[in-house]
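Because discrete structure vocabularies remain unfamiliar, we turn briefly to a single example record, giving the amino acid sequence and backbone structure tokens:
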Amino acid sequence: MQSLGDIFCAQGRFRDAKAIQEEALQGLRKLHGEDDRVVFEMMNDLGTTYARLYHFHKARKYNMAATEGLKRPDVLGPTHLRTLAAMESLTPIAVNIGGRFLEEVADMMQFVLDQRKEKFRNKEHPLVLLAMVSLALLKRQLGFLEEAENLILTGLPIAERNFGASHIGPLHGRYILATIRIRQQRYDEAEKILLETIERQSSLTVSRGKYHPDRIMSTISLSECYKLQGRIEDSLAACDEALLGMEDIGGQYHQMYKNAQEERKALVELLNPGNVSDSPPMERLRERPTLSRDKTSTW
């Protein structure tokens, strides 16, 4: 069932994955007790799935318990690769919860990066590059934009050289760089990065539909970038595209979809104060010219 949960996650079927992982955790606890490595690893998987569903406080509960369990000397210890991976899984949770927890996870992520550099003796190892991206996310959220930028600009050229500019990893790094540029109010640069990233993400393999989740996230950030520039029409078009992308992969139940719907209402209100009536997303996109330079895209 653990493998099936991984398959469901890869397909974006997070609710199905959660149900399978909850059942598996219950079974593993009965079989191994509360303090076994496999129990903590399943807790970490379940917490990660909760985070993907945007249930961040539940995710924190499971991932923190897993991390503390794996850190124990009689289980794996604090420097084991699996323990470091569990620590890293706290990154998106901390980014969304914020507060003191964000600072604690940033310190933890610095430890993860240092440990991986020491273990692999290779600054170009994929797990080192991944840790740099995770730390950059946390630094960005803490407002340390220059530190976040330096981490991405150090790792991104290496990742693009080693994996190719259209690989999912470097594309994610470029997306993070664009979000940093937005916070730096360097909107023209952010827009250029996002448009190029979205174009390449349109070719990423997906298990269903036409939209990779990373492409949807980039489109949401593009909408934000346009809105901050006062380009409300463009922001609304990008928001519509993100909504259609989530519908395409069956994501209407997800909190991110609900958030995008609320953002769309706000954008319509900015365009037509006092009048929230507007064409549905599909009709609006049919009426508008393409925003992407990718001829095969649905922009």
Notes: The CA atoms of residues 96 and 161 lie 31 Å apart. Residues 286-299 have pLDDT under 50 and may be disordered. The chain is about 75% helix and 0% strand. The radius of gyration is 20 Å.
